[in-house]
Every structure is written in structure tokens, then in C-alpha cells.
Specification:
This protein has 311 residues and is of the alpha/beta class. It has helices spanning 16-27, 45-59, 84-92, 95-102, 130-150, 158-177, 209-222, 228-236, 251-261, and strands spanning 2-6, 10-11, 32-36, 42-43, 77-79, 104-106, 120-127, 181-190, 196-205, 265-271, 273-277, 287-288, 294-304. The protein has a seven-stranded antiparallel sheet, with helices on both faces. Strands 1-3-5-6 form a four-stranded parallel sheet, with helices on one face. It starts with a strand and ends in a 7-residue tail after the last strand.
Amino acid sequence: MTRLVEVPTQFDDRSFDQFASAFAEAAKDGERLLFDAHAAEWASPYGLVGLLAAGQAARGTGGGGGGGAGGSAERPLLTAPTHADVLTYWTRAGFFREAAELFEIHGKVPRVKAAEESDVLLPVTPVRAAEDVHAVVSNIQRRASAILASELGLDPKATMGFAMALSEACQNIVEHAGTGGWVAVQAYHWRRKLAKRVVVIAVADAGVGFRHSLEPTQSKRFGTRWGDAAALEAALIQGVSRFRDPGRGQGLAGIRRYLARWDGKIAIRSGTARIAIVPKWDDDVPLKDGLPAFPGAQVLIIIPEQGSTKP
């Protein structure tokens, strides 16, 4: 028997909990899953990498990712979007190149190369080891520098911080996931309250998540409070890491400092909780607990255009 998981029509961080709920419900019986994206009209980088993480989890050990909810070695099914422009964008964003390894795809996928020069700064790219992180960062540095300076009005020196933030977000997969994940970076117009150009970094995996990763060193300290929310708080607010080595980079605390300087946002979802550093231009909630369970960790970083309009 196949269980249906509907992909939201507008698939981004706002609709992700709806998707996670459908996924958790469908995956609990261990049946083969069908992800239905035929009605999708738009997906953010966060939606695309999140969908790949769900495919990774649904395959369990068969998809190269532990922490799976479905546990079936049989590939889940994916119905591709029917809107031609959506299909083209997902292809240019590199989604289908990665999805082909995880899903049995139904629907016609256009033969379009992943974007090399466009608003897709970095197509959906796998991250499995530290070498991948270095490749991702060097890959994007030239293009990101131009976009951050010309479109967002950031000081060229800010591009170094951007590379650090990207590197640390990807490194998080390598250190905490216990499996591979994906990163995507894009510049586009943020239609919500902000109404500015933004650069968005989205990172997702279906690994063990923050709570499991930090449990050996942190659970006693938190006592009965220990859980997904406490683990995210420890990692983002208190700067706790699995690793004691100070040479391992600046971690999430470094990303936070960088984003504070440029009025940016970071949100991390792991397990049943989500934490965010919310800038004044956004109306997100700083901490949510009791969310639909979803494996691994999903990170969203947003850096807005500087100074052209008042939020």
C-alpha cells in the first residue's frame, strides 16, 4: 500500500509544518510513500531541500540516510509539478538532479541544465563530508560577492562573513547529521512584510538531529527540560557544540553575530521544535515546540538588502 504526502502549493518555511505533519502521519506505518507535488506553484530553496530530506528519510537505509521514518529500502514516489514554469525552475535549481537518486519520479522533467549564472546562486548541492563544504563555499564566493555588494548593498567585506555563515551552516550537516544533506542559495524579492531583495541560504538533512547529537554532553545540564527545544537553545543561543576543539570554526554563534550586523534572520527546525533569531522586519516566533516530528535539521538564513527601504 502507498501512503500519500501532499506537497504544499506554496512550499516554504511557513508551510513546512503542514508538510511535516503529512509526512509523519503517512510514514508511521512503514508503507511506501507518494509525495504529490503536481499542484505545486512555488517552492523556496528551503522547500526544495526539505523535500529531498523527506525522500532521504522515507528511504531509510536504502536512501543513504539513517534517521528515516519510513525505513523502506524501496524508493518513494514523487509526482512532479504540472506547471511548466515551476517544473523548469525546480530543474534549474538542481532539485531533480538530486531527487533522481531518492525518488521514483512520475511526470515529465525538462532537460534543462542546473543554473550556472542566475538568481540561483547555488543550485541544490549535496553535502556529505567536510570536502563538500569547502567546494560549496569556494564555488559560491565569486558570485555571492557580486550579488551581495550590487544587489543587497552590503559592504564587500561582508562577503567574508557570508562565506563563513554558509560554511558553518553546511558544516552543521557534517557534524550533527550522521548522514548527508543539501544546501541551496538564492537571491530573490522577499514578498512578505520586508519587500526587499534578500539572499536565502537553506540547508536540510534527515539525520539524527540536534537533540540526539548533543544529548551525551548536554542532557544532564538541562535535566527534565531536555528535548528538541532545549537542544536548539543550547546550540544557537548558548553556542554549545558537540566538539570542544576551538579550531573547528565559529559555529552557530558565529552565524548569529554576522546576521546581527546585517539585520539577518536564522531559523533552525529539528525534531519537534524550531528556534529563530527574529529581526525587526519579520513576525516569526522565537521558539516553537510540539511541532510535527521531522527527522534531522533544517536551517534557514536570510540576509536582506541594506538601507533602500524602511521595514
